[in-house]
Amino acid sequence: MSEWIREPLHDGWAQTLRADETLFDSATEHQRLRVFENARFGRILTLDDVVQTTEGDNFIYHEMMTHVPILAHGAAKRVCIVGGGDGGMAREVLRHSSVEQVTMVEIDAGVVEFSKRYLPMLSQGAFEDPRLDLVIADGADFMRNAEGEEFDVIIIDSTDPIGPGEVLFTDTFYGHAKRAMAAGGIMVTQNGVPFMQGDELTGTMRAFQALFDDATCYLATIPTYAGGPMAFGWGTDSTARSVSLCELQERFAKSGLEPDYYTPDVHQAAFALPGYVQKLIP
Ligand code: SAM
């Protein structure tokens, strides 16, 4: 029997998704995890009833959080993913042959375990790649002790700032993460849908402005993160954001990537912000 699942994320507004078949529904040590089949999006993973990823539209999110910073950087060897338990982010990072080592810090072993079993199309073998080092730990604890690491790119693929993900939106966490970056490093964050969660973006931008020479966000529209485009925080002391289109096209051609969303033109255009988003940046 199918069941409609209501996502309780925003005050006064909700999206509902039909679970045509529930493949898994149980509490992990940290959160309620469900995997279900939906006619439009394929398999969907929710944590505490909030959509984390879907088979159908995850490519937009994962491509934009990986190829944008990695191609803007131009020579990223060491990448850290905080969160990312479904493996989709690692999948896209590992497509870059320049990347020699990926450290993925996920708090919930249950997410990894069940994603491998019920959502193998998300990770596509990423967990077996010898370049991936999976650390089961709180990302905030990891970054507190990560001084001396030299990550070229840090990707914060967190849940929303409720429950275990809350610490990943604090100034202290961002400050510790910055200490773990190599010179020229880039940090990107998932910052929710600004039309619905404007405070989330404002908070991260305020913290980034205090930490980085270049602090902004870029956008992409992901159907199941409903309510308008999603914002990704961008922080770096480098000038990587102003890489020319010509240079990006060259790097992209060399990468051999065949993405379904990312293109160098989309990369550049994603940093064009509508007025209501600009106003959320202090
Ligand atoms: N993009 C999704 C969204 O916002 O809907 C989130 C993707 S999901 C892979 C986020 C992951 O972050 C989950 O697997 C969750 O367990 C993990 N996570 C939450 N809090 C964390 C923390 N403090 N440290 C490390 N991982 C955390």
Automatic annotation (TrEMBL):
It comes from Thalassococcus lentus. The gene is speE. InterPro entries: PABS, SAM-dependent_MTases_sf, Spermi_synthase, Spermidine_synt_N, Spermidine_synt_N_sf. Catalyzes the irreversible transfer of a propylamine group from the amino donor S-adenosylmethioninamine (decarboxy-AdoMet) to putrescine (1,4-diaminobutane) to yield spermidine. S-methyl-5'-thioadenosine binds at residues 31, 106, 138-139, 164. Spermidine binds at residues 62, 86, 157-160. The lineage of its organism: Bacteria, Pseudomonadati, Pseudomonadota, Alphaproteobacteria, Rhodobacterales. Keywords: Polyamine biosynthesis, Spermidine biosynthesis, Transferase. Belongs to the spermidine/spermine synthase family. This is Polyamine aminopropyltransferase. The keyword Transferase applies. Transmembrane segments: none annotated. The active site is at 157 (proton acceptor). It is an enzyme of class 2 (transferase).
